[in-house]
Amino acid sequence: MDFLNTTSDDDIKEFYEQYGGALQHSPNPFFDEKWYTERYPDVRERICSGEFKSGFDHYCKVGFWDKSPHWLFDEDYYRRKFLDFPREEIEKNGFRNGYDHYLKQGSRLNCPSSPFFDPIVFLAEVPDFVVEPDEGAYISFLKGFPDNTLNDKKLSWYFDPVWYQENYPDVERSAVNWQGPLHHYLTNATPEAFNPNAFFSEQFYAQAYEDVAGAVKHGAFRNCYEHFVKNGQYELRQPARDVNLRVYAENPKIKSEIASQRYPSFFVHYMVHGGVVEEGGYSSEEREFISKAVYQEMCRIRLPLLLRGGLDFSCDQPELSVIMVAHNNFAMTMTALYSLRENYSGQIQVVLVDSGSSDEIRHIERYVRGINVIRTLGNVGFLQGCNAALKHVEADFTLYLNNDLELMPRAIETALARFVKEPQAGGVGAKLVRTNGLLQEAGSIIWKNGSVCGYLRDELPDSPEANYVRSVDFCSGAFLVVRTDLLRRLNGFLEDYAPAYFEETDLCVRIRELGWDVVYDPGVVILHYEYGTSGNTESVHMMQRNQGLFIEKNANYIATRYPRNAQKDLLARSARAFEKKVLFLEDFLPFRHLGSGFTRSNDIMTVMVRDLNCHVTVYPIFRPLSITEDIYTGFPDRAEVMWNKGLEDLVGFLNSRPGYYDVIWIARTHNLDRLAPVFAECAGALAGSRIVLDTEAVAAPRDLQKWVLKGETPQHNLDELLQKEFRSAWFVNRFVAVNQKDATILRRLGHRDVHVLGHLQQAHRFTPSFKERRDILFIGAIHDADSPNLDSLIWFVSEVLPKLDDRLPPDVKFRICGYLNPEVDVSRLVLNPRVEIVGRVNEVTPYYDTHRIFVAPTRFAGGIPYKIHEAAAHGLPIVASDILCEQVGWQAGEDMLAPATGNAASFADAIVSLYDERELWQKLRYNALRRIARENNAEAYTAEIRNILSQFSQQSGNEVEGFSLTS
Predict the structure, then answer these.
(1) What do you get for the CA distance between the two ends of the chain, in Å?
(2) With a threshold of 0.90, does the pTM exceed it?
(3) Does domain 770-935 sit in CATH 3.40.50.2000?
(4) What's the average model confidence in pLDDT over 730-737?
């Protein structure tokens, strides 16, 4: 790295080598000795031990690959952004690292050296700055630094020096220690105490994103802002309480400007424009007009291909009959039929009504084989055409399908599956998306005055509110599947509504009044052209006439609906009356594969939805970074999953749903501290809601165990820790403990309304025998470096497994399954050749059914480990630490083997006994299964959750200003 050795004076070099390093002198402008040793404390320790002469000595010899040499250069940032090649490739091209490449090439190309020095931004700010030939702005800047005339100039998008000096005047007064505001920000000893600009808050970001706060605490990032500029801004995390990037990024104009690369990120765009969106371009009506024109043109372009290939709906015994009414629009009709044929490979009967067409639809049989065509004299309209076609239907299910739409993947399959999953479903409707990409409807609402509306019209199709299954008043006839026997019983659409409007609304109400359900299924997605004919005088007159007719015929049903009000959408969106509406707050979305209590949370909310007729909104404290396929497969499909929100959005969310929730279910005690100020701010919106705290596990005893295990003196006694843990429980109405031990602690703290809810398990009685199994199993999640599971596994691998070498066959493996945070170092677990790390598995049963022993060598824990009950339910005998045996309340030696916690020799003896002794294995298996059947059965579990959600006593809670916590 030639630039790092620029001094030509031999005397200066000699002085530096003898004294300069020890005095923390920098050898040249491109390496900052003082900053380097302060930024990397481990380097300072190695210098003090005499291993290296200076930070510069360390950097040149070993630190150059993973450490940055100067506060204005970020090695990781530069390599990821501009030099994303393997180390071997970089070295093969003559560069030692990113900095070497930057000083030789990147600086001359005016590439940013870090988020805080962007030559393009700097030179635009200081156009008269002199850049030496073949150097670039970075090298010239460092050679001339410091220059006090540049203190108020921006060096990049991400730091505002003027704002910084105004908000931190002490920095300017102590300028003798700092070479300008940016130097202070990037080198001060308390980086979390300062914000870089008006749009980012260290305090807010750390509170909103505990994962980042933890990473900063462990040294992965200097402060929260470093994480944000490198990662968080691209994940659309919220940088400050009043800066919502996710909402900002939904604006089409801003999206187009980011796509054109005028700005590097939505955050930069926000800062430049102060969060103000300058409206321009096309209106929403103009955009929809253009999108429809494009759709029509695409149908025209596609038509020759469809005519050339032809379509075939020939069938013997149709699984589905489709009724389509077409009046002209041949190209669009062919597109709809092609979409139907491609969507479902099963047998489909198509009954097409040619309603007086004058285009090529008159000869559609030339291009589509196997369809039934009914031709009418003139345009009879949708209603009469459908009723004429109903007489020809042969399948058990009938689909009303418009000719101006396309079906998204698996629409038919999903709709038919809904009837199997929900036998009371009489009709199933779709999520209709218009050509402009916005919703036409996600189910529809009937109001008390007889008017109707599509729920969430003009909203985004992927919004959580549009993506859970609901019972609704009605669904659009553009795509509506109905049981054929029901249609015949009801004689299809009522002819009174001819020629159009309110016919499918009336049909759905009549289906519901016969005791059947009408279901909106968001997995059925349809792209709908949606003809705009409702604006002409004739259609307005027909609509008004048929609305009056609809009110007259369905007065009793309409009387039960909500008055029309935009704020009533939430209540009116579902036609089902719920026992309770529950807001379920968890650390993260409770996917089963996460383990660590999330499986139990998943069970609880599943029982609420599936068995107790509750509407459940699942809301994570920490917003998911991205939507994944798990979002809508990991939870009951009738649960509302708020995948796009987090703690920072909760105030606005609660205030948007005043009085909506009967119960707020809080998972894990540590969330009380985070939620208390939010609930206080939203007291009016929460009036009448009851607060349930599901402790999941009382943490104080576990913390004491951990301190003792590490040989540390506890900073507090148990009572002090408990008081601290439950200091924000004053607003809780009802407590849930996972076992009687925790319940006793809660009562001792003075909480009277305490329930016990363990784990839900179903005993698997018929599983492989002793002889059919081999190997040792552990299933559990590892979320962070402080995980009890990680501690127990490291201990087990290093202390217990070696004691089995001469006592078990060498080919006996120890497999570790379960979620593994990729940022956690598990290298110590693979040092033993018996260990195999499987990681997350989609189905655990095959592992339980093939292994002979389950081990849980936990050394500190709270609550009840789910893995104990799960292993026992699968008929796999257990060797677990005695603290776990105590937590589940089982009998050592009868229900499981429970060697003393942390006693490696006893643990090894127990494993050998259970692995070799068939009679012992069978006894433990039988007794544990009996325990599961008695203590964890579904009926008792469901009954207890119903009890927890039931009427609260007057003494169960507190009263605070504007927020009633009693019934």
Answers:
(1) 73
(2) no
(3) yes
(4) 95
